[in-house]
Amino acid sequence: METKILLDESRLPGRWYNVVPDLPAPPPPPLHPATREPVGPDDLAPLFPAELIAQEASTDRHVDIPEEVREVYRLWRPTPLIRARRLERALDTPARIYVKYEGVSPVGSHKPNTAVPQAYYNARAGVRRLTTETGAGQWGSALAFACAQFGLDLDVWMVRASYDQKPYRRSMMELYGARVHASPSTATASGSGILAEHPDSPGSLGIAISEAVEVAAASDDTRYALGSVLNHVLLHQTVIGEEALEQLALVDETPDVIVGCTGGGSNFAGLFFPFLREKLAGRMDPVIRAVEPAACPTFTRGRYAYDFGDTAGFTPLLKMHTLGHEFVPDPIHAGGLRYHGMAPLLSHMYELGLFDAVAKPQRECFEAGVLFARTEGIVPAPEPTHALAAAVEEARNATSEKVILTALCGHGHLDMAAYDRYLSGEMRDLDLSVDRIEASLSRLP
Ligand SMILES: *Cc1c(COP(=O)(O)O)cnc(C)c1O
């Protein structure tokens, strides 16, 4: 009767899994905004090192994980798979709930799975400094930790709403040696432009990305790193699913349902891609479901169209589910899910019908988060409470045995202000009007 299913360090995955060659159709390429032609490696060279550009377009089924990266991964990987028996008992369900817990990483989330290789490939290419954005502060913390491992400087643009709500995430980034700017900032032309129009802007990931890209593009020894959305990020995150696949096999289980929360889609993709490989090969048949916030419903209410990844329009055009690059989501507490777009690879797969999606309002999610904390003890970050709410719903509706798998992609130790608001009854569900979405989508490029 295992509660915690552990893998020995020797079982740490040796390669990442690339889902692209296993898909029935290739994803549409990113386009150059001026020429509308597919972008080539040269277009991306000011932003990313060659190895990551190659991974972005790779059609190899597997990519070997460099030993230097595996050495850092070993600080916390393999991560535990937890059978949530106490939650099952509280729900009085015949379902069995398995939770892949990524909160055991040094910074408390899945983000170092890609931060470490990104810092490594940049350092190996002779880059001196990275720039990035951060929403809830998880990605900034992860990259700050990774840059400290490989001797890189780091500048982080942190979304203003989170900068004010989460001062300890900022402290953590500074502790690892990064410089942190509240975004929009006066340090960039794109940030200054927004502030001139909206002095009280709460910021958004789209704005923060513009600032970080602007600074990286202007400097020879500086490159940019993105914490989600891109193919190479999703690739790196597949260590989550590869481990979970082995762990479930150890207890002779196959999942019937896989749920994950989606901001840009990286923890969800990392969890389910290896299981989808098995599904496409006819070895299992799980239902796969993305869970997004009702206040930023990219899959369920966005449009599948070419759009910019950032607010200012510096990035290539990406074919993705989008609410429009100028869309500023309301400041919900799951800051990591406040992104106007979705990973292009996941968007393509959603169109192919390889998984479905639901949107959940934040109070239902926090209710599930509190129930999880009171039963299993772990305080979830606000983002994965979306996945937990969907898992709880599945378990409550189960009338017979069923195996539910989800990723608890981060702990919520630095999110107590959000839990305070929920527990005091002050938290509101935020309505998003059709008009606001339509207005934003009318400005697609
Ligand atoms: C960043 C983050 C997310 C959202 O990003 P994805 O790429 O969708 O995974 C979700 N949860 C946590 C804990 C995060 O740090």
UniProtKB/TrEMBL annotation:
Listed A to Z, the keywords are: Amino-acid biosynthesis, Aromatic amino acid biosynthesis, Lyase, Pyridoxal phosphate, Tryptophan biosynthesis
What reaction does this catalyse?
(1S,2R)-1-C-(indol-3-yl)glycerol 3-phosphate + L-serine = D-glyceraldehyde 3-phosphate + L-tryptophan + H2O
Give its E.C. classification number. 4.2.1.20
Please give the residue positions where the record annotates the modification N6-(pyridoxal phosphate)lysine.
111
Q: Which superkingdom heads the taxonomic lineage of this protein's source?
A: Bacteria
The Tryptophan synthase beta chain-like PALP domain extends over 75-410
Q: What cofactor does this one take?
A: pyridoxal 5'-phosphate
Task: Please state the pathway this protein functions in, per its UniProt record.
Answer: Amino-acid biosynthesis; L-tryptophan biosynthesis; L-tryptophan from chorismate: step 5/5
* PROSITE patterns given in the database record: TRP_SYNTHASE_BETA
Carries keyword Cell cycle? no
Q: What does this protein do?
A: The beta subunit is responsible for the synthesis of L-tryptophan from indole and L-serine.
- Name the chain's protein: Tryptophan synthase beta chain
Q: Which gene encodes it?
A: trpB
